[in-house]
Design brief:
The structure holds two protein chains of two kinds. Chain A is of the alpha/beta class. Among the domains of chain A are: about 70 residues, no CATH class; about 90 residues, no CATH class. Chain A has twelve helices and twelve strands. In chain A, the strands form two sheets. In chain A, strands 6-7-8-3-9-10-12-11 form an eight-stranded mixed beta sheet, sandwiched between helices. In chain A, strands 2-1-4-5 form a four-stranded antiparallel beta sheet, with helices on one face. Chain A is globular. Chain B folds into two domains: about 60 residues, no CATH class; about 220 residues, MetI-like (MetI-like fold, Orthogonal Bundle). Chain B is about 75% helix and about 0% strand. Chain B contains 14 helices and two strands; from the N terminus they run H-H-H-H-E-E-H-H-H-H-H-H-H-H-H-H. In chain B, strands 1-2 form a two-stranded antiparallel ribbon. In chain B, helix 5 packs antiparallel against helix 6 and helix 13 packs across helix 14. The chains are: A alpha/beta, B mainly alpha. Chains A and B meet through helix 2 and helix 4 of A and helix 9 and helix 10 of B.
């Protein structure tokens, strides 16, 4: 089995034409994932993470979007491939798990029908055989009495069971790449951990690459191998989960870490929200997009003028950040002000 | 589900009973003497009294209503003494003008109205849903604008104009179609279609507008749903996404509107029948009302109410077929 990079994204840009101007939802992002590894894309809503994931499936709005750069899955460049080629790959080579399994499943079709349909799109098999496969998958994702449950409808499932069914549907064709868009956000905390465990188990079994989109750094530390932090349509920090969580380099990442409640930490630790709101992607601030919300921005100065590029952190291979602050200064602030998240 | 059907049927029966009672009462509230209609212009006071007696108009009104209703289910004797004759169930009485059994007249008019209604309904529903889905799929394009424009034109034109124009074009100018008439579909199915096609087109061209617009807007709403994104993410072809997943989820309001529309069409299409010279229920009921021909009015109103009530009940049951979330209890 190949261990090379299965998904490779290079300078991906997704711009939407709207009445008010061009929305730069994704503006030059690069990353890659190997099979068997999990990359977590982290950011607030409006950071471009969901658009990135939809573009990977070719599900962005093709009428208004302009996509440039390279997005290779297996050997196929999704950006330049024909829509029909991408359609044939969807659900088979790459598949998606959505945030809210109640709205993401068709309310009028039985669970078994929806899963067997997904199988039959990519396999020339009869209905009975596909149904059998669906029941197998339901069993595999830990749904009790799968044969009976397959005949039921989404509204007859609990939230956690629904997400398991969604996962069964996403995995029914053994995809090499699974994109999970906030798969646990809509679930109870107790169920969240089970779903994450299940994903990890399945990843080990199927050796697939996973892209986990989330805003929850707790989830990231639990399952990810690598992290990509997005802000304003661009990557502001990326690296292995250990490096990014233990020694985060970007003030935005610090802000995210400081707003995560910690069970192990000192209970007097206050949660510090990041002030302000994410920028409008229609009108991203010049310089560093984060500068208006950054407590450490050098203003007036480079932060509001020059857009920082991702730069490798010295002595920390594979970890890079896009910040104008000098490395020593970042280290000093990190050690005094930033909460640690256990990895 | 069975309990639901039983409950729904009972409700329908009660509704029909109420409607029949109200129609009966309404007719007697009008300041016109049915006996005078029957007796005619030159009528002595004595003749009038005789007519009144033979029609049972001197009985208390509740008794009259009771006898009328009983006639529908078990039949009754009409007339007095030696002139009394048997009117078999379902007896709606006899026409005040021709003295013909109303049930016979209905038996003649109903197949015509039903033929017009069912054909027109199928045609208009197919056009409406088809156009609605296509317009939604091609939202914002010329195809979308054209179909929505077509619905506006359709909705704005009066039936008699469309009917007359179609008749002029297809019957007289091009001579492609015969004069509209009713031929029994059992005897001659092709002749039936040929004789009915113009009324069908007329009704469908005007009737599809509302359902087409509703289908389009419902589809557009559905297309924004998460599960449509999921169906694309599975790799389904667009065709399946639109015509199966999205249309199925948009079905509830479409079935409501189309189902109730069929009920309305079945009770008679007055203008269409008049334009094409077809003697269906619609024409019959209008003539009966202007002629104060109570038995026919009662019968046509009851039949219309029956179709509406049944179609409402069927639509209610359809909800459960369409949406599994309704299949509770």
């Amino acid at each position: 089995m190949s261990t090379g990079t299965y998904l490779e994204v290079e300078d991906l840009k997704v711009h939407f034409r709207t009445e008010d101007g061009i929305v730069k939802a994704v503006d030059g992002v690069s990353f890659g994932v190997e099979r068997g590894k999990t990359l977590s894309i982290v950011g607030e809503s409006g950071s471009g993470k969901s658009v990135t994931s939809l573009t990977m499936l070719g599900l962005h709005n093709t009428r208004t979007a302009t996509v440039s750069g390279r997005l290779t899955i297996g050997d196929v460049d999704i950006v330049s491939a024909k829509p029909e080629t991408v359609r044939r790959m969807r659900g088979k080579d790459m598949s998606m798990i959505f945030q809210d399994p109640l709205t993401a499943l068709h309310p009028f079709y039985s669970i078994g029908r929806q899963i067997s349909e997904a199988y039959r799109i990519h396999h020339k098999v009869g209905k009975d055989q596909a149904w059998k496969r669906a029941v197998e998958m339901l069993d595999r994702v830990g749904i009790p009495e799968p044969a009976r449950r397959a005949k039921q409808y989404p509204h007859e499932f609990s939230g956690g069971m629904r997400q398991r069914a969604m996962i069964a549907m996403a995995l029914v064709n053994d995809p090499n790449l699974i994109i999970a868009d906030e798969p646990t956000t809509a679930l109870d905390v107790t169920v969240q951990a089970q779903i994450l465990d299940l994903l990890e188990d399945l990843q080990r079994e199927f050796h697939s690459a996973i892209i986990l989109i989330t805003h929850d750094l707790g989830v990231v530390s639990q399952v990810a191998d690598d992290v990509l932090v997005m802000y304003g349509g661009r990557a502001v920090e990326k690296g292995s989960v250990e490096r990014v969580m233990r020694s985060p380099e970007h003030p935005y990442t610090w802000g995210l870490l400081n707003s995560v409640p910690s069970l192990k930490g000192d209970s007097n630790d206050e949660l510090v929200p990041i002030p302000g709101n994410p920028p409008s992607l229609l009108n991203v601030p010049p310089g560093c997009a984060f500068n208006p919300r950054c407590a450490h921005a050098m203003l007036p100065g480079p932060c509001a003028i020059v857009r920082p590029e991702l730069e490798v952190v010295p002595g920390d291979g594979g970890h890079s950040a896009a910040c104008h602050l000098p490395v020593d200064e970042r280290k000093a602030i990190r050690e005094s002000d930033v909460r640690k998240v256990e990895v | 589900m069975l309990r639901f059907i039983v409950r729904r049927t009972l409700l329908a029966v009660v509704t029909l009973a109420l409607i029949s009672f109200m129609t009966f009462m309404l007719f007697f509230a009008v300041p016109a003497d049915p006996a005078r209609t029957v007796c005619g212009q030159r009528c002595t006071a004595e003749q009038l009294e005789n007519v009144r007696e033979s029609l049972g108009l001197n009985e208390p009104i509740m008794t009259q209503y009771g006898e009328f209703m009983a006639g529908i289910f078990v039949g009754r004797d009409l007339g007095e003494g030696e002139f009394a004759t048997r009117c078999d169930a379902p007896c709606f009485g006899r026409s005040f003008l021709s003295n013909e059994d109303v049930s016979d007249m209905i038996a003649r008019a109903l197949p015509i109205s039903a033929s017009i209604a069912i054909g027109a309904w199928i045609l208009q529903t197919v056009i409406a849903v088809g156009l609605g889905v296509i317009a939604a799929r091609k939202r914002g394009t010329l195809i979308d604008r054209f179909s929505i424009g077509a619905t506006l034109v359709g909705a704005a034109l009066p039936i008699y104009f469309v009917g007359a124009m179609l008749l002029l074009i297809f019957r007289y100018t091009l001579e492609w179609l015969p004069q509209p008439s009713y031929i029994s579909p059992i005897v001659n199915p092709l002749g039936w279609v040929g004789g009915m096609i113009l009324p069908w087109l007329t009704i469908a061209l005007i009737g599809f507008a509302f359902d087409a617009r509703m289908t389009r807007s419902q589809m557009l709403e559905t297309l924004d749903e998460d599960f449509i994104r999921t169906s694309r993410a599975k790799g389904l072809r667009d065709r399946v996404v639109y015509w199966r997943h999205a249309l199925r989820a948009s079905m509830t309001p479409i079935a409501t509107s189309a189902g109730l529309g069929l009920g309305g069409l079945l009770s008679g299409a007055v203008v269409t029948e008049t334009v094409f010279g077809l003697n269906g229920l619609g024409k019959m009921s209008v003539q009966a009302i202007t002629g104060r021909n109570l038995p026919i009015v009662m019968a046509t109103v009851l039949i219309a109410a029956f179709f509406i009530v049944v179609s409402t009940a069927v639509v209610d049951m359809l909800y459960a077929v369409i949406d599994p979330r309704v299949r509770l209890g």
